[in-house]
Amino acid sequence: MQIEHLELAAIDASGAMASSTGLGILVRVRAQSGLTGLGEAPTDETSVLGSQTTVSDWLNRYGAEVVGAECGNINRLNQLLDGVDAGGKSGCPAARAAVEMAVYDLIGKARDCPLHVVLGGGYRDTLERVGQIGSDDEDVGGSASAMIEAGFAAIRLKIKDGSAQTVKRIQSVLDAVGHRPLVDIVAEQSLGNEARASMLVENLLTRQFWPNLGLVQPLHQLDLEGHRRLREKLPIPIVLEESITSPAAMSQVVRTGVADRIVLDIWRVGGLLNARRIANMCESAAIGVMVSGTCRSAVGRAAMGHLAVTVHGSCPVHFGSDQTEAMDPLGQGSGLGVDLKWD
């Protein structure tokens, strides 16, 4: 079954189609049989590599390679995509992930089975969700309580630094939700050095120990040695997020023993095949995996859901910044399970 056409459409802030600029780009591939597959690439105008213009350009580059290719051989497809990238590094991981996602969706539809079956099969059929609290939220305790009441199983709290005010914000969340849900402090590489990261955690644990607390990416994404020392020193899990960019990067994390858990983003690692490779490494090394990503529509949410059920473990899934509505992330039917009226 050969791919004969690829087309793009922007997504606006509501998740609907947009004619020009938007928050993401939908990809549709069509096979000669008439079947179609969908993919999604989030965009970010604050980043040159993530801008809509750049992502669109790379989508067209990757698309030129897959048009005419046999879509049933995903390894051969990725070999073609490798030919677009220079020096073995993905030119635009989000764009590559979107094209590959659309082909996976097409394969699932051709086989008349859900995408997670194509990926190897699921360990679970239900998913718990993660809520996220921004670093500018003025009532973090109230927001955390509302998320738990809404059914979220875990909370990601973004921070800007390791100041006393930040400690108070984290304590407010912990006081509001207690020891039951997972609470991850998302530093986004902002703590600068090991001393600041250690001081933040020590100040938090002075009053009592919180077994549900985790620290996400406190140091620069390339500072694996610093994260390793923090993991040895601190009594809470060290979680890596921005450091997980590829299977090669994950192999370094496993080799150096720097993480208790990772955050796995389909678009950061360049696609579902790479994500599954990383998940396999984590399983062999007893490293937990939380699937996360900045998706803009049901297409991306479905891809994250199908990936998450193939991961051996019970970590909840972070579907985006404010996904509070009830949803079926796995959709209904074959492939992604998402029905889209492209016109």
UniProtKB/TrEMBL annotation:
The keyword Metal-binding applies. Keywords: Metal-binding. Transmembrane segments: none annotated. It holds the Pfam family MR_MLE_C. Residues 25-120 form the Mandelate racemase/muconate lactonizing enzyme N-terminal domain. The keyword Metal-binding applies. Residues 144-315 form the Enolase C-terminal domain. PANTHER family: O-SUCCINYLBENZOATE SYNTHASE (PTHR48073:SF2), O-SUCCINYLBENZOATE SYNTHASE-RELATED (PTHR48073). This is Mandelate racemase/muconate lactonizing enzyme family protein.
